[in-house]
Amino acid sequence: MRGLITGVINVAALTLDEALKLYQSEIDVKIVMIFDYSYGSDVVIVKDYLKSIDDLKGKRIGVENTALGEFVLYRFLQKTGLKREDVDVVYLELHEHMEAFLRGDVDIVITFEPEKSKILSREGKVIFSSKEIPMEIVDVLVAKTDILKEN
After folding, report:
1. Alpha carbon distance 137, 125 (integer Å)
2. How far is CA 80 from the centre of its chain?
3. Residue 110: beta bridge partners?
4. Is 4 helix (H, G, I), strand (E, B) or coil?
5. How many other C-beta atoms are found inside a 10 Å radius of the C-beta of residue 147?
6. Close Cβ partners of 130 (under 8 Å, ≥ 6 residues apart)
7. pTM for the full model?
């Protein structure tokens, strides 16, 4: 998104929520193609000592402060029957996910690649993924409108 905003790039692969955010910020882009649906890429990873849904109450969940992060958090809570007030949400940038999880700053992390594989190679287990909400997370290709007109 930053590359499109600053003009460094003209075309980008984004999640649909990011494309809509650009559109709302008056960056003139068009969705050129839907090219993927998340099917297990977006995950909720928990510490190994968390064995049941009841164990999650009162725990800290690390998540990006983005529409996608909030959406996965919402769907996870909905699927487990937990309420937002049952957990302590900690907003983290993607590059902070692994360290925060391994240090114990958070007990649960909502993440995706490449952090997903890095974390799972060291600790934790997946208890929820986008496989459980098929076709709800969409990846799109967007291009600046003026570039489309020229090309």
Report:
1. 21
2. 18
3. 44
4. helix
5. 14
6. 38, 39, 40, 41, 42, 43, 72, 136, 137
7. 0.86
How buried is 113 (Cβ within 10 angstroms: 0-12 exposed, 13-18 middle, 19+ buried)? exposed
Residue predicted with more confidence, 150 or 45? 45
Report DSSP letters for 54-101, one per residue: GGGTT-EEEE-SSHHHHHHHHHHHHHHT--GGGSEEEE--GGGHHHHH
Instruction: Judge whether 71 and 17 are in contact, CB under 8 Å.
Output: yes
Q: What are phi and psi of 58, to 5 degrees?
A: 80, 0
Going along the chain from its start, the domains and CATH numbers come out as 2-37+136-146 (no CATH), 43-132 (3.40.190.10)
- Write out pLDDT tens, residues 90-131: 999 999 999 999 999 999 999 999 999 999 999 999 999 999
